[in-house]
Amino acid sequence: MKNEPANRKLKISVLRFNPQDPESVPRMQTYDIEEAENMTLFIALMEIREKQDPSLQFDFVCRAGICGSCGMMINGRPTLACRTLTKDLGTEISLAPLPVFELIGDLSVDTGKWMRGMSERLETWLHMKEREPDLGRLEERMEPELAEKIYELDRCIECGCCVAGCGTARMREDFVGAVGLNKIARFRIDPRDRRTDDDYYELIGDDDGVFGCMSLIACHDVCPKDLPLATQIAFLRRKMVSVGWK
Ligand code: SF4
Asked: N or C: which end of the chain has fewer CB within 10 A?
């Protein structure tokens, strides 16, 4: 009988730190596990937590790349643990929490607080043209091409990977990030929203918005939903420059 190849042994090093515990100091902790077929990093972390260390903190909800909860730095790159197969990585893997966001503990960060602040600043909700929104009109017919364009930009799951990979977000606390600029691009093309271009430009026309972007394109590279982030930012910037916005 032909021998099956042995499963790989993985060394997963995790940056551990609990900011709630005054005794806690940041440190790397390494866990050894055996790789299983089609193992994702999320499954590996679950196994570590179940069999080796119940104190390990990380977030997940859907396990299918939809909720955006399991974003983390995997070998220095922000991405989703549930969408990362261990077979695509070497046998030594390093994990750290996403930077920029408030650390809850270990690999768990509070992206919700950051996203809420950005959302309130940019008012990332539909501003209906009527004073009293007619909910029936939300379902009004729209040209399929336009609906497709809006849908494309609406696929953001607010995972925070684009913010974690962004040089400006590390330097400017109030930078709205590619996620925020993408939302403005989305509402700008929605015919149901009453805001004008000037209203949008007022929201993003400074160094915490579109002019803070250094065009490093990391957001575009790391977005797990493959959103055209750099293209959208460049488009908004060109539009604003073309009308003399400074
Ligand atoms: S734009 Fe992409 S990377 Fe950024 S929060 Fe949305 S899904 Fe995540």
From this structure: N
Mean pLDDT of 105-133: 91
pLDDT, tens digit (0-9, with 9 covering 90-100), for 94-114: 999 999 999 999 999 999 999
Task: Provide the token pair at 147.
Answer: 């609906």
**Pocket lining: 185 vs ligand 1, CB cutoff 6 Å:** no
Each residue of 77-96: pLDDT tens digit? 999 999 999 999 999 999 99
Q: Provide the 3-class DSSP secondary structure of residue 25.
A: coil
| 3-state DSSP assignment of residue 24 | coil
What is the number of the ligand 1 atom nearest to the C-alpha of 223? 3
Query: If you take atom 1 of ligand 1, which residue's CA is the nearest one?
Result: 179
Helix axes 144-153, 177-188, angle to 10 degrees: 160
The Cα 28–Cα 11 span in angstroms is 12
Read off the pLDDT of each residue in 60-70 and give the average, rounded to a whole number. 94
- Hey, whose CA ends up nearest to atom 5 of ligand 1? 158
Among the atoms of ligand 1, which is closest to the Cα of residue 160?
A: 5
- Quote the tokens at residue 55: 């104190």
Give me the residue label for tokens 């955006």.
68
